[in-house]
Design brief:
Blueprint: E1 3-9, H1 15-26, E2 31-33, E3 41-49, E4 64-72, E5 74-76, E6 85-88, H2 96-104, E7 108-112, E8 121-122, E9 125-126, H3 127-131, E10 142-155, E11 158-165, H4 171-182, E12 186-196, E13 199-200, H5 207-211, H6 220-223, E14 228-231, H7 236-239, E15 253-258, E16 261-268, E17 275-280
Parallel strand pairs: 3-12, 14-15
Antiparallel strand pairs: 1-3, 2-3, 4-11, 4-12, 5-6, 7-10, 8-9, 10-11, 12-13, 15-16, 16-17
């Protein structure tokens, strides 16, 4: 079995738990994913099955959409509602206009420091394992981009917003930064991933549907369609990993295809203009 499956992760399990359950349901050992979701979060995850796991590097760096709810007045060690409360603060009135202005101030590129309670690894060690031992280490800030942000509602000191952001953005940290600009504390109370690139949550399958065999797989050919496809009938040189001359294009990465099947990823060398095999996908 090869292909990609869109899965609706439920609240309360880790991304690893989800992979294990799907692996068991499909009787497949080789399953990958394009990004984790915290246990508190639900929504869209893209799982790659079988040899399709080879395409992961080419679908990981995409924009993702979330709907988030945050409650003002508290700060926790995990930055979400599941953590230990560290501080509390009285919530003062803020108008809808002010909220929109503050949200819009986050549009564009900026630097964001990963939280200690995260799966990010430093020297091979996940940060959350250190955090559980009350160990905090210095983390390097990473560039992120907020492409869209929209106020969806504000009620009972709870702010609901939609955000489209780059891979690697921690929405929990964004919640904290929003609260800081307002002059208060806040915790993330709910997070749903609604979109990854062109793939939407509404087209995802539940674990129960997958267990019952009620799902469809998406081919690599459809998933990688944002790249330039170069159709070849003779794949001898491709299978041998030889460099190719595609003087009709300047794309950095191209996909070699045959009969609607992606065979390999090739990358352009700026020095000689030739394309070199980056990864075989057959």
């Amino acid at each position: 079995m090869n292909g990609i499956i869109l899965v609706n992760k439920p609240i309360g399990i880790t991304s690893h738990d989800l992979v294990v359950k799907v692996r068991k349901a499909l009787n497949q050992k080789r399953i990958g994913h394009t990004g984790t979701l915290d246990p508190i979060a639900d929504g869209l995850m893209i799982l790659t099955i079988g040899k399709t796991t080879k395409i992961l590097p080419y679908i990981a760096d995409v924009y993702k959409e979330y709907v988030c709810e945050m409650k003002f007045g508290q700060r926790t060690d995990t930055l979400d509602i599941t953590g230990t409360v560290l501080e509390e603060k009285e919530v003062k009135f803020i108008s809808k206009e002010e909220l929109i202005k503050i949200l819009n101030s986050f549009l564009g590129k900026s630097l964001q420091k990963p939280p200690m309670y995260s799966a990010k690894k430093i020297d091979g060690q996940p940060l959350y394992k250190l955090a559980r031992k009350n160990i905090e280490i210095e983390r390097e800030s990473c560039e992120i981009e907020i492409k869209e942000i929209e106020l969806l509602g504000y009620f009972n000191n709870t702010l609901k917003f939609r955000v489209v952001c780059s891979t690697g953005t921690y929405v929990r940290v964004l919640v904290q930064d929003i609260a800081n600009k307002i002059g208060n504390f806040a915790v993330m109370t709910k997070l749903t991933r609604t979109k990854i690139d062109k793939f939407k949550l509404e087209n995802a399958f539940t674990l129960q549907q997958i267990k019952e065999g009620n799902f469809t797989l998406i081919s690599s050919y459809e998933v990688l369609s944002s790249y330039r496809y170069i159709e070849l009938q003779d794949l001898t040189k491709i299978y041998q990993g030889k460099k190719m001359n595609f003087d009709f294009c300047n794309d950095e990465i191209v996909m070699i295809t045959k009969n609607n099947e992606v065979i390999a990823a090739y990358q352009r060398n700026d020095e000689d203009g030739l394309y070199y095999c980056k990864r075989g996908l057959w």
